[in-house]
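Workshop exercise sheet. Pairs work together: one partner reads the sequence aloud, the other fills in the structure field after running the prediction. Swap roles for the next sheet.
Pair: D.N. / O.F.
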Amino acid sequence: MTMNTPSSGDWVPDACTLPTAEQPVRIAEFDRFFAESVRSSDRPARTRLDLLLDADAEPAGRDLAARESVCCSFFAFTFQATGDGPVMRIEVPDTQIEVLDALATRVDAAIGGDRR
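Structure field:
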């Protein structure tokens, strides 16, 4: 798998079927969602990233996850209600750890650490 470094603004893996021209728009959507809606992140496993969302952010997260799942079918997005707020769980197979690593780096950059 070839993938540019996260700092280059491109974490999209070769396996993604989203047209190249649309990829920067989707990346910007994720960055905006991370910055505006994610309160904190947790990496309980190499293949999993949990994002604690603002209370009203779940519908936007579900929409973005559904659209991303169409072009990058290796992502598994699930949502869970917790006492702290909704959690968006992102899981990938072992073969896509680099993609999740890059995504986690983008989340950290967008939220500047824990926003709680």
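Discussion prompt: The radius of gyration is 13 Å. What would you look at next?
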